[in-house]
Amino acid sequence: CERLKFPVVIKADGLALGKGVIITADVATAQSTIDEMMNQHRFGDAGRRIVIEEFLRGTECSLHALVDGKNHLLLESASDHKRALDGDEGPNTGGMGAFSPANNWNNKLQSQFETEIMQPLLHGLLQEGIKFRGLLYPGLIITSEGPRVLEFNCRFGDPETQALLPRMKSDLLPLLEATIDGTIDKCAIEWDTRAAVTVVLASAGYPDKYETGKSISGLDDAAKLEDVRIFHAGTKRDAGKIKTAGGRVLAVTALGSTIEAARARAYEAVSRIHFENCHYRRDIALSAVAANIDKLP
Predict the structure, then answer these.
(1) For the chain, how many structural domains are there in total?
(2) What stretches of 77-129 show up as alpha helix (H) in DSSP?
(3) Is the backbone peptide bond immediately before 159 cis, with ω within 30 degrees of 0?
(4) What mean pLDDT comes out for the span 223-251?
(5) What phi, psi does 198 have (nearest 5°)?
(6) Could you give the CA distance from residue 134 to residue 115 in angstroms, rounded to a whole number?
């Protein structure tokens, strides 16, 4: 640790529900984090091996690509909010909200991503005899030198997907079939030009200890709002009622002509949903709204 340049990022090498990433500012914190992961089994088997990475400064962006073994088709961009509390404070979570399109992504960055990251990756996989078919989800950070990869996932992002799919006007099933059949290069996706904002409702205490079994009300009232979709996560049916059953309970997504309109509609829907000890961030997509204001003449 003494040879590292701080801050550094320490990651559990296995699946940790999006919570296995710790940014450490000094040697003592790094050593205690490694001990918690590897010896105290903070993340179970996921922390038996760890990855130590350089800390990169910039803003994050999530991309998804359908890969058929040789070719790929990019989905629209998205950005998520990983920290538990407003102002990007608190511990990392699986994600407390998202919006699409990402306000820090453009055609120049996409061209750089294709040339410097995606094409070399697929070429390298083929050289190693790996014909990957499926969904590739690179988590990126946009630095002063362009996009850099934080991690690759072989799954849809959560909650980015809840912001992406309501914008997808094309049928998803034929795209998945083309991914299997090796014909994704013949496909295109039609997107709704409107923005989407997703707000996650969680049990208080998440991502640490939290209580479950709380009755949820207002779901039907929230769903009546135009262009609003409610995605269930940590919920269950119990004696005819819907109750909380996990850390992240619901994701509420709204579409709008602008990111501001989508955000206002999403929070209107959230205000109609109630359960004891409900927690959600109140600044989802606020950075994108502020960026739009800054662009005004």
Answers:
(1) 3
(2) 107-113, 119-127
(3) yes
(4) 97
(5) -120, 130
(6) 20
Return phi, psi of residue 105, to 5°.
-115, 140
Tokens of 247: 């850390």
Task: Output b/e per residue, 148-171; b: 16+ Cβ within 10 A.
Answer: bebeebeebbbbbbbbbbbbbeee
Statement to judge: residues 45 and 134 lie in one domain: no
The count of residues in the chain is 297
Residues 67 and 172 in one domain: yes
Q: Per the omega criterion (within 30 degrees of 0), is the bond before 138 cis?
A: no
Residue 75 sits in the same domain as residue 93: yes
Q: What is the pLDDT of residue 292?
A: 60
8 Å CB contact between 122 and 65:
no
CB 168, CB 229: distance < 8 Å:
no
Q: Residue 289 pLDDT more than 60?
A: yes
Whichever domain contains 35, its CATH number is 3.30.1490.20
For residue 126, the surrounding DSSP H or E stretch is: helix 119-127
Q: What are the tokens at 143? A: 């630095």
Cis bond leading into 101, ω under 30°? Answer: yes
Q: Which domain holds residue 8?
A: 1-55
pLDDT for position 297: 44
Q: What is the distance between the alpha carbons of residues 22 and 14, in angstroms, rounded to a whole number? A: 14
> How many CA atoms lie less than 13 Å away from 45 in the CB half-sphere?
1
Sequence-separated (6 or more) residues with CB below 8 Å from residue 254: 196, 197, 225, 227, 228, 229, 262, 263, 265, 266, 268, 269
- Give me the mean pLDDT over the 50-74 stretch: 93
Residues 203 and 271 in one domain: yes
Give the global pTM. Answer: 0.87
What per-residue confidence (pLDDT) applies to 296?
Answer: 41
The whole-chain average pLDDT of the chain stands at 94
